[in-house]
From TrEMBL, chain A:
Family: Belongs to the TRAPP small subunits family. BET3 subfamily.
Protein name listed in UniProt: Trafficking protein particle complex subunit
Gene name as annotated: LOC115750230
Broad class of the protein's primary localization: endoplasmic reticulum
Origin species: Rhodamnia argentea
Location(s) in or outside the cell: Endoplasmic reticulum; Golgi apparatus, cis-Golgi network
Automatic annotation (TrEMBL), chain B:
Endoplasmic reticulum among keywords: yes
Pfam families documented for this protein: Sybindin (PF04099)
Naturally occurring in which organism (per UniProt): Rhodamnia argentea
Subunit structure: Part of the multisubunit transport protein particle (TRAPP) complex.
Record protein name field: Trafficking protein particle complex subunit
The family this protein is said to belong to: Belongs to the TRAPP small subunits family. TRAPPC4 subfamily.
Subcellular location: Endoplasmic reticulum; Golgi apparatus, cis-Golgi network; Golgi apparatus
Gene3D superfamilies: 3.30.450.70
């Protein structure tokens, strides 16, 4: 699915130079492709939870690759070891490269130590999508949650990432929050590092 | 003042997939709107055959005493038509805008089944915004 597609111009893909590439992709083209991805997965599953999981898995593959690419292009092959470092990397760099802008906000959860939230007024992937009423709280932003999980996991910060709609007063459309819940070991390591 | 009475969208087989009425005059119930839609679909097709000009793509404007009907047919056969007050300007442009909204918020929606009635929240939202803007622009002139 996503991530599987090679343009073979060189005999060995490793010889091909890592160029900057085209910075912009048509939003319409992406929307149609993403719509097809959702529709395809809908035919393969029986329930909504399963559909969300599949979208997340698709995003996971993207996240893992994006981390490798951005570490090389943007950060000169340096690795983030601190929690805040990797979070601001996701919030700014990853979002900038994928969606053309930094995420709206990054917050620390008030109730639990291990929760962080990245909020966005409207996720790019959800721009043209209207969820039917009978699908309840399903959010196609599960794909983006998967991307974030892929980045964090590959960077050594295992976490459970989910996407939620949060209703906002005065606005018809709810804002989207990506909730990141880090694993125990991450917090212990962070505490050790001081 | 120039006003739109109703908006219809019909699929390529003539079935009504979207109906919205805006004026008190000409308000009709579901059955009537379905009937009008299929009536228009057939008339549009017949007019294409009957037309004396070569390469005619069907009726674009119908002018009557109490209303005007502007119709836009996309390349895929989906028809957008709006019933409005006689003499309303810029309906062609409005229909093009509605077509763009359709391609964006209906066709890119993975939960929309082709040729089925449109039940997309974003489409309704943006449609009313576009018509508001249009109304303001018309009143401004």
């Amino acid at each position: 699915m996503i991530g599987v597609g090679k343009i073979k111009q060189y005999s060995n893909v490793l010889d091909k130079p890592l160029s900057k590439g085209k910075q912009e992709v048509s939003l319409s083209a992406f929307s149609f492709l993403f719509s097809e991805l959702v529709q395809y997965n809908q035919t393969q599953v029986d329930n909504i939870a399963e559909l969300e999981r599949r979208l997340e898995d698709a995003g996971y593959s993207v996240g893992a690759r994006v981390l490798e690419l951005l570490c090389h292009r943007e950060k000169g092959n340096r690795r983030e070891t601190r929690l805040l470092g990797i979070l601001s990397f996701v919030h700014s760099t990853v979002w900038k490269v994928l969606f053309g802008k930094v995420a709206d906000s990054l917050e620390k959860g008030t109730e639990h130590e291990d929760e962080y939230m990245i909020s966005e007024k409207e996720l790019l992937v959800n721009r043209f999508i209207s969820i039917p009423k009978d699908m309840g709280t399903f959010n196609c932003g599960a794909f983006v949650a998967g991307i974030v999980r892929g980045v964090l996991d590959s960077a050594g910060f295992p976490a459970v990432v989910t996407a939620h709609f949060v209703p906002v007063e005065g606005q018809q459309r709810p804002r989207t929050t990506i909730l990141i819940k880090f694993a125990e070991e991450v917090l212990r390591r962070e505490a050790r590092l001081g | 003042m120039a006003a739109i009475y109703s908006l219809f969208i019909i699929n390529k087989s003539g079935g009504l997939i979207f109906y919205k009425d805006y004026g008190s005059a000409g308000r009709m119930d579901t059955n009537d709107s379905l009937r009008v839609a299929s009536l228009w679909h057939s008339m549009h097709a017949i007019s294409q055959q009957l037309s004396p000009t070569v390469g005619c793509s069907g009726i674009e404007l119908l002018e009557a005493d109490a209303f005007d009907l502007h119709c836009f047919q996309s390349l895929t056969g989906t028809k957008f038509f709006v019933v409005c007050e006689p003499g309303t300007q810029h309906m062609e442009a409005l229909l093009k805008v509605i077509y763009e909204l359709y391609t964006d918020y209906v066709l890119k929606n993975p939960f929309y089944e082709m040729e089925m009635p449109i039940r997309c929240e974003l489409f309704d939202l943006n449609l009313s915004q576009a018509l508001q803007k249009d109304r303001v622009a018309l009143l401004g002139r």
